[in-house]
Amino acid sequence: MQIFKTIHIRKIHMAAAAILIAAVAAAGAFLPPAAQKAAAVLSAEGKRELPIYCVNTSEKKVAVTFDAAWGADDTDELLRILEENDVKATFFLCGYWVEKYPEEVKKIAEAGHDLGNHSATHPHMSQLSAEQITQELEKCHNAVKELTGIEMDLFRPPFGEYNNTVIQTANANNYLVIQWDIDTLDTKRKEGKHFVSPLFI
Fold first, then answer.
1. Fewest Cβ atoms nearer than 10 Å: which of 94, 107, 185, 190?
2. For the residues of the chain, what is the DSSP string, one character each?
């Protein structure tokens, strides 16, 4: 049984994005949201709750995800690269990003990519109460629904941080919690190498 990998790109140079997306396309890989929903991992009562990291499948597929929290200068170029390679991705959107870049959100949705919730304000969710977590989810959810009509059902906690309260509260609000199991580490700067201004982080 193969594993449906989740590749997470937080901040990436467009040339690197093109290479990665082309490789994904060559493997016949794209993101079907329903495949992620099929593998919610919930531990027994009293045990640690876990998000979805990957999905067992007999098919050769990976899921490409982006977290939209900062700039949007390269959105058009990224969407062009995805379209040219026939790749669909999931974009996890912060509420304030949605408010600042509504036209980019519409473009992403109209291109057929999946939209996910990345909270309203990008807080450390594991430090919040269930009520505060719900408010973060609802504010972002409502902003996206009002703008696109889409009812999101996938959630990625900022910083990849979660605890039982985060996962249980997300589930109670009809969200599946999605992590990544391969990080491109594109936020790491190396001597002599530069990245363009962040698109997704």
1. 190
2. -EEEEEEEESS--HHHHHHHHHHHHHTT----HHHHHTT---PPTTSPP--B--EEESS--EEEEEEE-S--TTHHHHHHHHHHTT---EEEE-HHHHHH-HHHHHHHHHTT-EEEE--SS---GGGS-HHHHHHHHHHHHHHHHHHH-----EE--GGG---HHHHHHHHHTT-EEB--SEE--TT---TT---PSPS--
**pLDDT tens digits, residue range 71-97?**
898 899 999 999 999 999 999 999 999
Domains and CATH numbers, the chain: 2-183 (3.20.20.370)
pLDDT tens by residue, the chain, 201 residues: 444 444 555 444 444 455 455 555 544 444 334 333 433 443 445 688 999 888 888 888 888 999 998 889 889 999 999 999 999 999 999 999 999 999 999 999 999 999 999 999 999 999 999 999 999 999 999 999 999 999 999 999 999 999 999 999 999 999 999 998 776 665 554 444 333 222 332
